[in-house]
Amino acid sequence: QSPSLKRVDPHLASATLQHFVRNLYSRLQPGIARAALAFMAVTDLNCFADGNGRVALIWLNRELEWSGLMPALFREELGPEGELMRAMHQARDGQGDLSALVEVIQRAQDHAREFCVALQSSASAAT
């Protein structure tokens, strides 16, 4: 957890998420920036010790799919314990600059594309 990030009071989590959706999320165009921001918001609306990481990753990928973009598949070194976490710390501590986070998401999308191509190749070879 980032030293500058405080946990949301559990009594305020619902209203905080509603405020985010109504005042920030809904004003952004669909795409990778909105996906990254939704991911950060859900992750940071963490009022519990085990966090909201899985929900945040699901929302991230739904946002990407809704935009017609490839979902992100995070290899271990890119994932929540690796570069993704470092990029999230940079976004939190760097006045909201999401560029490092977007770059990690794009690399995870590249990995997803490579994975799909490999699956298709092995399916073709099996027939």
Write the layout of secondary structure elements.
Elements: H1 13-23, H2 32-44, H3 53-66, H4 83-93, H5 99-126
Helix pairs in contact: 2-3, 4-5
Question: What is this structure, in a nutshell?
Answer:
The protein is mostly helical.
Task: Report the C-alpha radius of gyration, rounded.
Answer: 16 Å
- Mean model confidence by pLDDT: 88
Contiguous low-pLDDT stretches (5 residues minimum) are none
Task: Give the terminus-to-terminus CA distance.
Answer: 48 Å
Total DSSP E strands: 0
Derived from helix and strand composition plus strand pairing, the structural class reads mainly alpha
Strand percentage lies at under 5%
Shape: elongated
CATH superfamily: Fido-like domain
CATH class: Mainly Alpha
Counted by DSSP, the helix tally is 5
What's the main sheet like? none
CATH topology: Fic-like fold
Please tell me the total number of domains: 1
Q: What is the level-2 CATH architecture name?
A: Orthogonal Bundle
Order of helices and strands: HHHHH
Range of helix content: 55-70%
